[in-house]
Amino acid sequence: MSIAEGTRRWLIVQLDRIGVDAPVFFSVIARAWQLLTGPVTVTLMAVFFSPEMRGYFYTFGSVLALQVFFELSLHIVLINAASHEWAKLKIDEVGELAGDEAAQSRLISLLKTSLKWYSVAAVLFVLLCGPGGAVFLASGSLPLAEWIVPWSVLVVLTGGLLAVQPLSAILEGCDQMKTVNQYRFRQAVFGTLVVWAIIGSGLGLWAAAGSAAVRLGWELHLVGVHYRRFFQSFFRKTLSTAIDWRIEVWPLQWRLAIQGVATWGTLQMLTPVIWGTSGDVDAGRMGMTWTVLIALQAAASSWVDTRRPKFGQLVANGSFDELDSLFFRCTSQSVAMLTAGLLAFCGVLAALPSVDWSIAEKLSVAFVSPQSAAVLSLGILVFQIPHCQTIYIRAHKREPFLIPSLIVSACIAMSVTVLGIKYGIAGAAIAWTVCICVVQLPLWTTIWRTAHREWHKDTVALPPNQAAADPVEPSP
Asked: Three-state SS for 98?
């Protein structure tokens, strides 16, 4: 065995020890690329963007997140539903769908119905979010000519991404996470390079549209080229057994739809609130900070997010001990990685004011204060635990978080708005973190424990697939 082969095997063993398999690896390196190149992007924005333009750039993202009102969180349902069917399916040697005929038919019906849903959602998103977002953004200080065309193009591209989302969701549910995450890595690399080129060329807010164009291009290549035979086989087969949308999908989807709106309030409203209370300059500072924190959280979530299909398969097979072991191991690794990232970020922010360098000075004022960043970091770290608990629960195709999500979202909306108006960024940061620590974490942990105890006890005597499909919620 050569030295290179030995080194490769040693590296694989070491990665496996910390829970990094192929899907996690590609997800992590995609997020790592964003984290490593993020400082370059931030520096370019600090140099080439005015404070007002940064406010528009990050508020674009928060407004576009309103797409959750149109797709109603169906992609999460698709991943979990497809993973249950995939326990009996595979991709054959020519790249087509193969396996149990009934499971094939159910998966095909799931995709065809979801494609219709997303097509309508994409059109409505473009027609409503485009003009509505423009009205909101018009309250800023930049002239209309500087942002209206990039905004319009960005909305159309985001609508295109929304239209192809069911195809990528089905791939994730069918345990194709390795390939999907390889494409996510390519999106991250090419997207970053395009954004740098656009910012450096002085084209300003066109950077957001350029990033979306890269994402859409790779998504189309993933589903239309790489998995062309796979999806073509969906339309050549005849349906014998269809998913009963009303019974198997809608009970979970409407709960997730309401929660998706609540989640927007939880994770996306900080920047718009600061825009409305303190102006576009402070919104840019909050947006810059929040983007880094969410990137860290997303990178750490790779240890759990990439296990969604595996969780669903273990639930479908009734392998609850293996499910619990995998969940606790992945969650611990995720929280540990996030802790390290947040400490590094806060340390850099604290050190920037003491660095005698003009770019360091620009970066220092581009973010929120180190104190506010530390408060938000604490909230993000605590938020990671409910995030992981939610993935575990949804693998059972059940959704007990509806009312708690509304409670958390209402608390955040009221407290962030009130303290944001009175104390600005610092007040909004404290309000958000307190709501996560005092309201969300206890609620989610109580629900997770109750669900874990009751569901696994009640499903022992039932066939695994029947137990997993039952949408009954745990008792309080």
From this structure: strand
Domain count, the chain: 1
116: burial class by Cβ within 10 Å (0-12, 13-18, 19+)? exposed
Domain that holds residue 112: 20-469
Find the helix or strand (DSSP H, E) in which 113 lies: helix 101-137
How far apart are alpha carbons 88 and 105 in whole angstroms? 12
290 contact partners, CB below 8 Å, separation of at least 6: 58, 270, 271, 376
Is 290 contained in some domain? yes
Is 94 part of a structural domain of the chain? yes
Over residues 88-99, the pLDDT tens digits come to 888 988 889 988
Residue type, 358: S
CB 270 within 8 Å of CB 286: yes
Q: Which residues lie across from 89 on neighbouring strands? A: 99
DSSP summary character for residue 352: G
Tell me the C-alpha distance between 302 and 299, whole Å: 6
What is this structure's pTM? Answer: 0.70
User: Domain for residue 2, yes or no?
Assistant: no
pLDDT (tens digit, 9 = 90+) per residue, 304-347? Answer: 887 877 888 788 888 888 888 999 999 999 999 999 999 999 99
Q: What is the spatial distance between Cα 263 and Cα 266, in angstroms, rounded to a whole number? A: 5
User: In this structure, what token pair is assigned to residue 362?
Assistant: 């620009």
CA neighbor of 62 nearest in space, from 254, 208, 277? 208
Is 452 part of a structural domain of the chain?
yes
